[in-house]
Amino acid sequence: MHLNPYGADAVDLAASLANHRPTDAADLAERCRTAGLLLEHPVLDGDLVKVLAVLDAWEGVVDAPDEAIRAARLNAMLAASTAHPRLTDHGGDGWHLHYREEGTAVGLMLSALIATGTALHLVGRGMHRLGRCAVAECRTAFADTSRTGRQRYCSQRCANRDAVRRHRQRTGAS
Ligand SMILES: [Zn+2]
Ligand SMILES: [Zn+2]
Predict the structure, then answer these.
(1) At 94, phi and psi to the nearest 5?
(2) Distance of CA 144 to CAs 71, 94, 125, 152, Å?
(3) For residue 37, which ligand has an atom nearest its CA?
(4) Separation of 75 CA from ligand 1 center, angstroms?
(5) How confident is the model at residue 173 (pLDDT cuts 50, 70, 90)?
(6) Cα–Cα distance measured from residue 126 to residue 37, given in angstroms and rounded to the nearest whole number
(7) For residue 134, what is the DSSP state?
(8) R_g of the chain, CA atoms, integer Å
(9) What is the pTM of this model?
(10) Which residue from 37, 117, 123, 129 puts its CA 20 to 30 A from 169's CA?
(11) ∠ CA(103), CA(75), CA(106), 5° rounding?
């Protein structure tokens, strides 16, 4: 199975890894497998270092103050990680596009996947569709794949929590 960078898989994986940083190489490998990502190489410490730096850059894309800066930051990520697109059926389960050289290490492969998946998400669904939870003490990063494109919270739990708080503020209850 492969992540579909045109779908939400890659950008959701980026958000998950950014919000809950992998603690070591084995943890990163497990998180990739859980996400359904086919790993062609063992995950090494160097891959973890690479991915953590990429996640810092990705959070910079999330926190960009406007669309032009968001695009420029993501273009820098694309330039640093991607190669020309190519067709592959390396998993034997269907032809798909890679945006990397054949045989790249896991760190660079994830860099290309995160950058490409985020770029396709933004141009396909809308440049504003990356954000952080509106609950001040949460601030979890998310990719907005909602139908309306007006997601404000990381989860229904945070939406409910904020609704309760706003209700209490209006009614003066504590
Ligand atoms: Zn593949
Ligand atoms: Zn939240």
Answers:
(1) 120, 145
(2) 17, 28, 9, 9
(3) 1
(4) 22
(5) low
(6) 25
(7) S
(8) 18
(9) 0.92
(10) 129
(11) 25
In terms of Cβ atoms closer than 10 Å to its own Cβ (0-12, 13-18, 19+), residue 161 is middle
Residue-wise pLDDT tens digits, 112-169: 999 999 999 999 999 999 999 999 999 999 999 999 999 999 999 999 999 999 999 8
Residue 158 CA: which ligand is closest? 2
Distance, in Å, from the CA atom of 109 to the CA atom of 28, rounded to the nearest integer, reads 13
Pull the structure tokens for residue 19: 């919000």
Q: How far is the centre of ligand 2, averaged over its atoms, from the C-alpha of 163 (Å)?
A: 12
Cα-to-centroid distance, 88 and ligand 1 (Å):
7
In one-letter notation, the amino acid at residue 67 is E
Kindly indicate the confidence band of residue 8, based on its pLDDT and cuts at 50, 70 and 90: confident
| Alpha carbon distance 116, 14 (integer Å) | 11
